[in-house]
Amino acid sequence: MGVAVDSPGSVHAPLCVDLDGTLLHGDILWEGIVSLFRTEPLALLLLPFWLMSGMARVKEEVAKRGQIDVTVLPYRAEILSFLVSQREQGRAVILATAAEIGLALRVAAHLGVFDGVFATQEGRNLRGKAKADRLCEEFGEGGYDYIGDSPADVPVWKSSRAAHVVGNQALVRKARAVANVENVFEGRPAKLQTWLSALRVHHWVKNALLFLPLLLAHRFDLRAIRTTTFGFLIFGLCASSIYIFNDLLDLHSDRAHPWKSKRPFASGETSIPAGLLISGLLAASTIALGFLLNVQFGAVLILYIAATLWYSVHLKRIALLDVFVLSGFYVIRIWAGALVANVPLSDWFLAFSLFFFLSLATAKRYSELLHAGALVSSGKSGRSYVEADRAMLMPLGIGCSFAAVIILALYEHNQDLRSLYPKPEPLLLICPIILYWLSRVWLKAGRGELDEDPLTLSIHDPVTYGVAAAILLVMIYSAMPL
Question: How far apart are the first and last CA of the chain?
Fold first, then answer.
């Protein structure tokens, strides 16, 4: 059951430590399950059949099929430091985990701090009493110390010499009822701010595009604004459900990324099961609310979810197609706003929007290639680009900027605008203003100063507010009667 190596002589009881939730933020089984979403989604249909043979079979199959990089897992620094200090004092340190034996051995090899490994194998799930029995077989009753983090560890603590607890006071009380507790490492539950970050509420600024059809159609009645506001909130929650799912799929690459490694799921601040649950609940509830608000709007939400899931699982790995799809997501927001407010959209404006957002999506991808060159070169970025592609992405993005402005200039000669703008000629001034803003985005991207989505970055950019004010003033002046 166990794989042991020579351990240094010690008069102390061996120190055994759990992996999931103790040494590791999170659960390595769930790491494998979300990796299957990315690599073999159809294999997930076999989960119920594996479960019929027991959890050990599930862990073995997931470990065999999943792709888990143990070198970037979110280990608890304080626990690892404690283990190192105990080993330096001559104490044997043992990894005793319910994780599959192959994964456990890889973790042990990577960390280099363990003198032995006991894990799930040969159909025996090493959890709870099974773990306690195995450790007693090896070290005898009361012959070891154990670090754990869950109620399932109570039987292990009961047969140990001393308990070390990772968790809250409720768990500490359970451990003290059966063992002598020597150390307590307090677990840190996810804060509200952490979940807001996971939901990417700051990205909801993109959903302000739902109000754009109202603005362009000069529809300022209270009912239309109220309906669109509800649509904005629903679309925001719907997008958040996808952001969570996308982050879970990208765990392997985000953890090796310069700044994405700090995201809540990549850093282990929030758990994978909680993320899957919240993502599913948000998606289902927003679709229901969307249909209640407007049947067509509800249908667009389904289209958006289906497209983003397809993008997350497959399309994002196809170079160039990924940025075209990304730009389409912005256009979907504008379309959704038009449907919920019952405002017609011009084909000219949709074409302008497609090229405008294609430029921004290309800038985002260019910036990622610039900042994460080593990750791209290693093939772990989750994309199919190479560093040399930057030379092509920049002219493509800048060309899209000019295409968008040319389409806008042609659109502003459309006679239909005279019903909204008695003086349409000044609207041409919007073209150089937008071109300036897009050129500035690309200037920052080229300098390496664009380290996030251009639209979310604009929230903190005073120049963007100045550009928006200038465009609004031009529109107001053109709308004034002759």
Answer: 88
Q: How many domains does the chain have?
A: 2
Q: What is the DSSP letter of 115?
A: S
How is residue 14 annotated by DSSP?
P
Other C-beta atoms closer than 10 Å to the C-beta of 203 total 17
Residues 6+ apart with CB under 8 A from 465: none
Q: Are 10 and 92 in contact (CB under 8 A)?
A: yes
| Residues 233 and 209 placed together within one structural domain of the fold | yes
Expressed as residue numbers, the domain containing 361 is 192-479
Do 181 and 198 reside in the same domain of the chain? no
Q: What is the mean pLDDT of residues 114-134?
A: 94
Phi-psi region of 27 (alpha: psi -120 to 50; beta: other; left: phi over 0): beta
Per-position DSSP letters for 317-383, written without gaps between them: GSTTHHHHHHHHHHHHHHHHHHHHHT----HHHHHHHHHHHHHHHHHHHHHHHHHTHHHHHHT-SSS
Sheet holding 116-120, edge to edge: 2-4, 116-120, 93-100, 15-17, 145-148, 162-166, 181-185
Q: Reply yes or no on whether the pLDDT at 103 is more than 90.
A: yes
Whole-angstrom Cα distance, residue 118 to residue 232?
Answer: 51
Mean pLDDT of 1-7: 39
CA-nearest of 159, 120, 121 to 138 is 159
Return the biggest CA–CA distance within the chain. Answer: 95
Consecutive H or E run containing 94: strand 93-100
d(CA 283, CA 465): 32
Provide the pLDDT confidence category of residue 1 given band limits of 50, 70 and 90. very low
Residues 113 and 248 in one domain: no
Say how far apart CA 78 and CA 203 lie, in whole Å.
33
Q: Which residues contact 156 (CB under 8 A, 6 or more apart)?
A: 16, 96, 128, 131, 132, 135, 146, 148
Contact 207, 239 (CB under 8 A): yes
Q: What mean pLDDT is predicted for residues 282-293?
A: 96
Cα–Cα distance measured from residue 379 to residue 373, given in angstroms and rounded to the nearest whole number: 10
Q: Are residues 212 and 147 in the same domain?
A: no
Q: What are the tens digits of pLDDT across the range 303-315? A: 999 999 999 888 8
Bridge partners of residue 164, in order along the sequence: 147, 183
Does 338 share its domain with 466? yes
Residues 366 and 397 in one domain: yes
Q: What confidence tier does 3 reach under pLDDT thresholds 50, 70, 90? A: very low
**152, 234: one domain:** no
Q: Which of 411, 470, 419 is nearest to 217 (CA)?
A: 419
